[in-house]
Amino acid sequence: MVAAHHMGHRRQRIILVQTGVGGGNGEVANGSGVQRVAKIKDAADCLICYQFDLIRVLLADKERLLHDSIRLAIEDDERLLLVGQLTNESDLQTICSKLKPDILLLDTNLSNNLLHYLNLIKSHCPKLKILLLCSNPDDMEAKLLNHEDVDGGLLKSESPETLLNALHTIVQGNPWFSSSLLKIMRQNNQQESNALLTNREIELLRLIVAEKKDKEIAQVLNVSTRTIRYYLQNIYNKLGINTRAAAIYQATKRNLI
């Protein structure tokens, strides 16, 4: 027997297994009726209770044809709950605040001004995880994928199993991106970095990554240590950082090494 209980805006799934009668199927009541869940196995000689929070997912995608396949994939996972489906951006912020999803599955083609909505949504729902759905990634989508409020990116051509893996990964606080999207993101980062930094600053960054000291870097670049510190401060200002460790991290992230 399975029941779903409201806890404020949260919903928990509780599975009760009566022992001594073998395995059985469970059911859960949700907004669309009763949903069958995974088969319960290996009942022991006692009453066992499994309880866990459902991961609430909100889908915002213009392409209605994809809604059913995404819904079926989510319903097939007993740890997930699809709380809503949108096809336009007009009520996105309001719906997110009302339904309080853990993850927003967001189509990159939902709006021509998606960066605005990303900032708006995160200001009202700071704990929300955002997984972008991409069709034909371009430079604009690369900028969206690299946005600080985005937790992951998924090609719409990926399998349902890959979608579920991405959802569970980002809800745990880890990023998840399709491999082909990662390549586009790295290329975009490198192009932006090369445009942002001078050749001398990029060369200095590579020497920092190689763990060279200021004096060693000055010898390689044939300048004074004072000039090295000046270059380094310029790099810090341009990348919005203030330590060598952060410089190494940014050099790696932006594919400068």
Question: What is the element layout, followed by pairings?
Answer:
Elements (H helix, E strand, L loop, with lengths): L1 E6 L2 E8 L6 E7 L2 E8 L7 E6 L1 E6 L3 H12 L4 E7 L5 H8 L3 E5 L6 H11 L4 E6 L4 H7 L6 E4 L4 H12 L4 E2 L1 H18 L2 H11 L4 H8 L3 H15 L4 H10 L4
Parallel strand pairs: 6-7, 6-8, 8-9, 9-10, 10-11
Antiparallel strand pairs: 1-2, 2-5, 3-4
Give me the strand/helix succession.
Answer: EEEEEEHEHEHEHEHEHHHHH
Fold-level CATH name of the largest domain: Rossmann fold
Overall domain count: 3
Instruction: Give the strand tally.
Output: 11
- Overall residue-averaged pLDDT value: 78
Name the assembly state: single chain
Q: What value does the Rg take, in angstroms?
A: 24 Å
- Unreliable stretches covering 5 or more consecutive residues: 1-9, 14-50
What class do helices, strands and sheet pairing give? alpha/beta
CATH architecture of the largest domain: 3-Layer(aba) Sandwich
Secondary structure tally, helices: 10
What overall geometry do the principal axes of the alpha carbons give?
elongated
Beta-strand percentage?
25-35%
| CATH class wording of the largest domain | Alpha Beta
Distance between the termini: 56 Å
Main sheet: strands, sense, barrel: 6 strands, parallel
Helix content: 40-55%
Structure description:
- With 257 residues, this protein is of the alpha/beta class.
- The chain has three domains: 2-53, no CATH class; 55-178, Rossmann fold (3-Layer(aba) Sandwich), CATH 3.40.50; 197-253, Winged helix-like DNA-binding domain superfamily/Winged helix DNA-binding domain (Arc Repressor Mutant, subunit A, Orthogonal Bundle), CATH 1.10.10.10.
- The protein has helices spanning 64-75, 92-99, 114-124, 139-145, 160-171, 179-196, 199-209, 214-221, 225-239, 244-253, and strands spanning 2-7, 10-17, 24-30, 33-40, 48-53, 55-60, 80-86, 103-107, 129-134, 152-155, 176-177.
- Strands 7-6-8-9-10-11 form a six-stranded parallel sheet, sandwiched between helices. It has a three-stranded antiparallel sheet with strand order 1-2-5, with no helix packed on it. A two-stranded antiparallel sheet has the order 3-4.
- Strand 6 (55-60), helix 1 and strand 7 (80-86) form a beta-alpha-beta unit.
- The chain is elongated.
